[in-house]
Amino acid sequence: MIWQYFAPLSQSCAGARGLRDDGACLTPPLGQEIVITTDGNIGGVHFPLNAPPWVMAHRSLAVNLSDLAAMGARPWVYSLSLSAPASFFSEQVLAPFCRTLGQMQQDYGIALSGGDTTVYHGPPHIHITALGLVPKGQALHRDGAQDGDDVYVSGRIGDGGRGLRLWQAGQRDGQDPDLRAYLAPTPRLSLGQGLRGLASACMDISDGFLGDLQHLCHASRVTAHVHVEDIPLNPHLPWQDAIGCGDDYELLFTAPPHHRQTLVRLGAELNVTLTRLGYIKASYDEPLDSVVLKWGGCPVTVASPSFRHF
Amino acid sequence: MIWQYFAPLSQSCAGARGLRDDGACLTPPLGQEIVITTDGNIGGVHFPLNAPPWVMAHRSLAVNLSDLAAMGARPWVYSLSLSAPASFFSEQVLAPFCRTLGQMQQDYGIALSGGDTTVYHGPPHIHITALGLVPKGQALHRDGAQDGDDVYVSGRIGDGGRGLRLWQAGQRDGQDPDLRAYLAPTPRLSLGQGLRGLASACMDISDGFLGDLQHLCHASRVTAHVHVEDIPLNPHLPWQDAIGCGDDYELLFTAPPHHRQTLVRLGAELNVTLTRLGYIKASYDEPLDSVVLKWGGCPVTVASPSFRHF
Questions:
Q1: ipTM, two decimals
Q2: Residue of B2, B23, B309 with shortest CB distance to A37
Q3: pTM for this model (two decimals)
Q4: CATH code of the region B150-298
C-alpha cells in the first residue's frame, strides 16, 4: 500500500527517499524559516461520514494549507497520519484519495514527506502536519492588530457553511459553487504571501467569521468595530448564520490605513475580493466583547458562538 | 484547555509563541538538517484502551523519539494532534497526560510546537509528528547495509512484548521491568546519535525483531545471517515469540567489522548492551528469505510474521 499509493506522492520530496526510512530529512532554503501547523480531520466531525474519498483528501490538506496561508507561508512538505477502518485501505478509496492529494500537491507545490497508517474500527482520522516556508521574520501572526488598523476579509463569508447545509439536505451537484466551497475549499495561499509586510495581523476563518475575529482581537488585545452591511455575505443565509458558521477558509486580516491602495492592487492582481469592513480600537475588555457589530451605525447583537480557547 | 495544559508545554519553543497562531515558526541551527517522523497511537491498537493517561502520553511520544533515534537525530520539537472522547479532555486525564509529556520534554530536550484537539466519540487517537536535528548528511538510514557488515541489536528483545502479556494478564506492578518496558519504553536517543558515522544501516524495532530486520534487509537489498543463540532474549518468552513480538524500541543496526572496538566502547560509555548477533551477505532474493536464522550453525525456521509493506 505504502509503495503503491503513498511513495509516489513523496517523489518531489528528495529527503523522503521513497518513504524507506523511519523519517525524512529536510533542509529549508537559506534565509527561510519553517512554519509548522497541524490539523486533525475526523469523519463525522470535520467532514461527513459519507463524504467521497476525494473530499476527505481535499478538505484535510486544504485546511492545513489554509493555516500556512494565514501565516504568509508557501507550502513545502506535509506528513500524513491516517487511521481508518480496513475498508478505507482499498483500491476503491485509496486511489481517488491519493489522486486528489497528488493533484493538490501539484496545484500548491507541496510534497509528502512521510506518515503512518493504522487500521482500526471507527471513523477515518486524517491528521496532517504541514510545513511551509517564509522569509525569516516575515511570518504573519494573529496578535499584531493595532489601534486604527482596517479590518479586511477575503472572498465571501458563509459559502462553505451554506455548502454544508446543502450537503446535509442531500444536494450532490458538484457544480453548485457553495457546495463546492464546502467540499473543496481553496486555501488563500497567494494572498497570504502577498500580505507579508502589509497585514498587521492575519488568521484564516475556520470556525466562523465572528468567532475567529474574536480570536484575532483576543490575541491582539484590541476591539474590532465591524459594519455588518459591509461584510460580503452568502445571499442564501441569514447574516447571523453566515457570520457564525465555519468552513470559510478565507483570510481575516488587519492592516494600517496607509496600505489601502496597495491592498486594492493586490486583490486585483490575485483576482481575490478583499473587503474592508471595519476598524480596530485599542481598548480591550474580554473576548466576547472584542467584536462590536454595527448596522447603519447602530450596534447590533447576535447570539455569539461560545468563545473557545481551542 | 489549550492555555492551561498545552501552552506551558510549548514554552521552550520560542517560535510557538504560546500557541497563539495558526502555526509555529522554526529555524534549524546552521549546518543541521531536520529529521521529520510521524506516528499515530490509537487506543485499542497501540496501547490498551484502559491504559492510564501517563502511559498514553509516554508511549505516544516515545515511539516518535525512537524513530528520531533510529535516524541518529536529536529531538527538537513535536506537534500533537489529539482526537478523543469528551471524557479525555478533563482535569483527571489531561493533567497526568500533560505532566508526563512535560517530564519527557525535559528528559529528552524536546518542546511542543503546536497541535490540534478534537472531541469525537471513539478511542483516543494521539498523532505526533516529531522533528529532530542531525548534522547535514549524517542521518542514519535503513538501506546502507553492506556485504560483510556485522548485525547488532541494543538492549534485550522481547521485554516489551512480555510486558504487554503481563498487562493483558492483569499485572499492574509498575516496578516489574518487563511491564515497565512495555508501558514506558526508553527511546535509544544517545545511542542513535553515537552511531552516526559508525552504523551503515539503522532502524528501531517497533514491529518485532525478525520482521524489522527483514525490513532493513529489504531496504538494503541484502540478506542477514543471525545466530539465534546470540540474540539477547527475554528469558520468560519462547525465542520464537520474543523475536516476533513488537514494542521493543531497541535499535537494530549494521556496521563494518572495523568498528567493532569503537562500538564496544560506545556501548560501555552509554551503558547500553550492544550485541553482535550475525552478519550481512550481499545476496538478496525476496523479503521473507532475507533473514536466515541459525542455531548451532544450522538453519532453523520460524513461522514468520507476514512481511508488511507498511
A1: 0.94
A2: B23
A3: 0.95
A4: 3.90.650.10
